[in-house]
Structures are given as structure tokens and as C-alpha cells.
Amino acid sequence: MDNIRVRFAPSPTGFLHIGGARTALFNWLFARKMKGTFILRIEDTDEVRSTEESVNAILRGMEWLGLDWDEGPDFFKDPTNKVQSTARAKGDVGPYFQMSRLDLYKKYADQLMESGNAYHCYCAPEELEAMRTRAMLAKRPPKYDGRCRTLSQEKKDEFEKSGKKPVVRFKTPSQGITEFEDIVRGHVTFENALLDDFVLLKASGIPTYQFAVVIDDYLMKVTHVVRGDDHLSNTPRQILIFHGLGWSDFVKNLKFAHLSMILGPDGSRLSKRHGATSVEEYKNQGYLPEAVINYLSLLGWSTEDSQQLFEKEDLIQKFALERCGKSAAIFDPQKLLWMNGEYIRKSNVDDLTKKALPFIKEAGLIKDENFSKEEFEFVKACVRLEQEKIKLLSDVPKLIDFLVMDDFEYDVKAVEKVLKVPGAIGLLLGIKDKIAALPEFTAASIEKLCRDLATEKNIKTGAVFHPLRVATSGRTQGPSLFHYMEVLGKEKVLRRLEKTCATFAVH
RNA sequence: GGCGCCAUCGUCUAGCGGCCAAGGACGCUGCCCUCUCAAGGCAGAGACCACGGGUUCAAAUCCCGUUGGCGCCA
Hints:
There is one protein chain. Helix 2 links the parallel strand 2 (37-42) and strand 3 (96-97). The protein folds into 4 domains: 5-96 and 262-330, HUPs (Rossmann fold), CATH 3.40.50; 98-259, Rossmann fold (3-Layer(aba) Sandwich); 347-399, Helicase, Ruva Protein, domain 3 (Orthogonal Bundle), CATH 1.10.8; 412-504, Orthogonal Bundle (Arc Repressor Mutant, subunit A). The strands form 5 sheets. The chain has a 3-stranded parallel β-sheet with strand order 1-2-3. It is mostly helical. The chain has 21 helices and 12 strands. Helix 1 (18-33) packs across helix 11 (312-318) and helix 6 crosses helix 7. It binds one RNA strand through helix 4, strand 7, strand 12, helix 12 and helix 19.
């Protein structure tokens, strides 16, 4: 089989959307699995809605997710590239920008005009709007009636003289059907008669989405169009253009795969009102890219055995367009959260701590400056203690704050329940002295000390453990008591015990 | 409004005619482990396979219709 070539073609009209990321991911997975080429093409032909910031956000999102593209113009030498992003592919290439390819679209529009497959239309937007409204009122489908198809030369000259800029419309066949095989949907057919003479080139010379896609997919030798289900109804128009340009062989070999949509919890298209929809928001909330990738891969794709967790390589190996589902999937934040926890538990601590650092700094637990190696090692030890409890990187600060801050807060209820019971402070004073005398301060030695004490006093171990925990942490829950004490070290533990006893001593 | 696509536990899904009185995962409940919280282990509740007709010895699986959802034209 020839080398497969796929593309992800986002419009830079917003941030990288979760749905877009899923489409990008499936293209990427397919390309990597088939050892093919993955192209990133920015479809920036919507002059008013496209922004540079969106382009940057998309590139940042792709980079964070690790979805690297393979081809494009030299990123830094491309004169049309105004984007200042650090995100780039191997070899500093791409992405392609449609706005830097306008001459190409013009050329093929001319070709279509010459071959009689397209024509100039001078109808004013207001005129078209009126026609549309009338059609709606008459309960007819609002389609353009093709009145400019048969414009006489005199009329054309007249319009030209008046300075009217025409749009280029495609001569859609009024009969027959357009059909294609879709890898996920199977055989799909549309009646041509239902389609109108749609616009190829706007009066400004900028191509419509439909037209640019066709030209680019052809020129970029795309072999598989993998995109969202929302483009299914656009496909017949595009196929018609391919034929009009004489690229019938190309389109015959072109494979389509229309992926199911991602919906919000209420079953409507996933949007802002459903919460976080941009990839970057997930990053900022403390999700790991591996978790997001893994979760997204399961939205509309599965293996025969319903495997849930995949290493990246495993995912590439097992991915198949043929196994993509047809029905829309509702985005489930709970499952993503679980999956993130899975990846965090699997992380190595050093790595995890580095990733959590921005969140820890953000919370004010550490300062940027004077961050020594020892401090890092201490924070790392704290993270290790809480690792299995972390679901989001942003959870880290509140899980370790009592370890990092020596003047931690006492939980009122914990104090009432555990410290303000008769004998508690006395007991703690006793422990303090024993700890001070401990030759070796390790989790094991502290635990032995406490257990021995319980036996000696003939009380339950819990009666020792609980007060000790509240006295040294201010709370009733946390990591393994003896292990966090070891991490704190003898000095800090003694100071904390002293302070607690002094504060809550009953006279 | 027209056209297109879709339809299995609350959610993601397995299932491509008999192996399914429907399997896995998230979530939920209970138990175990345990210094607390998690994690982990075990068990459980949860789907008349949207509905109605066919086809077949046999249908969640094939066909038709209905309904609903989503999408495109916008």
C-alpha cells in the first residue's frame, strides 16, 4: 500500500477544543501506526473569526499532547508565517496556512470556469437573503436558484462596469447521486438535486471551506480524510468539485472516515456551558497529557477486549479506524479524572514533582527564588507520601501543605475530638521525650516506639496514633503517620509536639 | 423545513445470527486490608439490547417502519 497521508485541519477561531483534539489524535494515531505522514493545516480562511492567538493556542495544545506533525513549509523561513510559537514539528516545519495559498485556489477556480464547471454570480447578499427568507416562508429548502448560470454577456458586462465583484459558484449537477464509502459509516449516498450551486470563491477572492479543502487535499496528496461527523453532509459537495476538476481517479482512491461527535452531559454538542472544553484548560487544571490522550482515544474507539489503559506505543499499535464507533459519545469528566489518577500513580516521583511544582508555587507553598536541591528533595518526599491520593496536579498543594508549612493550621474538630480528651497532652509529652531519646529516627523505629508505648500503657494503638497525628499535622487524615514523621525529621517533629502541647495544655 | 447520520447498564463501550438468561471500564453500594485518608482486593446493584413489524430452526446482531437524539444546508 502506498504511504498514507492524513491531515488535521482546524480553523483558528478558538482554542484547541476537546473534540478537535480527538480528531487530531485519531489522525495522528493512524499516521503513526501506518508509518505515514501527519499534516497540520490551519484553515484560516474565515477572515473575521481567525486569530493569531488561536493558532498559537492550537499549536500549544498539539505540542502539549505530543501530537507532532511531519510536514509543511519551513516554519521559520515561511514569509507568511506570523506565528510566534515554540511549538513545531521535527525539522521545524509547518503547519500549512490556507491564507498563504490563495493563488492556488484562484488558479483552480479559473480552471473550473474555463471548463464550464463554475460561473460568476453577481447576486447581492441582500438579494440572496431575501430569496432564502421567501423559500423558508414557502416551506421550501433554502437553496440558491442558479439564476446567474445563464446570465447573458451583456448582463455580465453591465455588472462588471458597475464595479460589482462576482463570487464563483459551482455548477452542481441537477441529477444523479453522489456516493462514497466511509470507513466508519459504510456506504453513504446523497441526491445531487438537493444541493444548490454553492460558492467556491468569495468576492474577496478567498475560497470557501469546501473549495479550499478539496484543493489542499489533492495538492497535499491526502489519502485518508479523517474528520468529525459534522462534515459528512459536506462530503458530496467536495466529491463533486473533485470530479469537476478532473480529479476523479484521486477521489476514487480517497478514503473517508467520519468520526462520531463528542457531546456534553445533556446530549448536545460539547460547548463552553458544559465546563472545560479547551485542551489548555485541562492542562491548567492539572491533567497529564497522557491521561487526556488515553481518555480521548476511548471516545469512539475501542478494542475487542475493551482495554482501558494504554501506553502510547500500545495505543498506536492497536488503533484502527475500522474499530471506530458510529454513535456520538458523551464526554465523562469523572472517568477522565480517574484515568488521570491512574497515570499519576504510575508516574515516577521525580517527574511528578517537577510537574506539580508550578501548582505548588502557585499556591504559595514555595518561592521561586532560593529553591535549593534540598528543598526539592523534601517536596519530592512529600509528594511521594501523597502520590496515590493525587488525582490532579492541582491537588498537590493542599495535600502537602501541612508538611511544608511548619505553622500548619489545626482542624477545630480534630482538636476537639482527639487533643482535648483527658490525658492526651500528657501522653504526647511522654512520646515527645521518648522521641527525643530515639537514636535512629525512621518510620520503623517511630512505629515500634509507639506500639511499645501502647502495650506498656495497656491502651489501643489507635489511642497513641491518633493524638500523635493531630499533634504533628493538625488533622485526622493524611499519609502514613510514621512515614511522614520520618520525612519531617526529628527536629521538626519535636518542635511541632512542643508547640501543640503548649497550645492545648489544660491547666 | 429538507437531507444525512446515529440508537446495548447513569456514562464510555464489547458484541459483527446460535458461545449473551448480554462481557469490560468509570461512577455507585457493601465487605476485606488498615494508624486516618487513599490505593488495592472481593462482592453487589445497574441494560425487558429505543419501540413496532418482518426474515430465520435461531436476532442485541439482517431488513422495513416509527420515535428520539445529533449534524448539515445556515
